[in-house]
Amino acid sequence: MKDLLRKAGRCDVEVESAALHTDEIGSDIHRGTRRELARHGIPFASRRAWLLDAAKASEYDLVIGMDAYNMADLRRLVYPADRPKVRRLLDFAGVDRDVADPWYTGNFDETYADVVAGCTALLEIVLNGQACAVVNVARNGGNDIA
Fold first, then answer.
1. Which end of the chain is more exposed for a tag (fewer CB within 10 A), N or C?
2. Are 32 and 108 in contact (CB under 8 A)?
3. Higher pLDDT, 96 or 45
4. How much is the pTM?
């Protein structure tokens, strides 16, 4: 998403990636994700997963989950008033399924395609002025492709 925004000339949009569970706190981007991003020429920097909480989620215009498990966790986590801004990534692209999970399959190219489809559709929302801050809640500590 950050790369798409940069290419669209939008440096005014904040994008974060967060975890919903503590098991990956402090972890960097998964090596499979790093390989896939490099393969597509998408720049990235080391980062450390951090835990999302309701107060932080309330600061964003959108809170994006990758799968049904994220969505269930997010609905429990966020303040009731923030539930309408919790969305599943592929819903933006009109696709009614979860982002493919490379953690179990090792198929990072399929995950990449899903994320690009969702983020490209989400970019249109941002470009139309409907969102300025987005938090992506990925699996595995916020380290999936985002």
1. N
2. yes
3. 96
4. 0.85
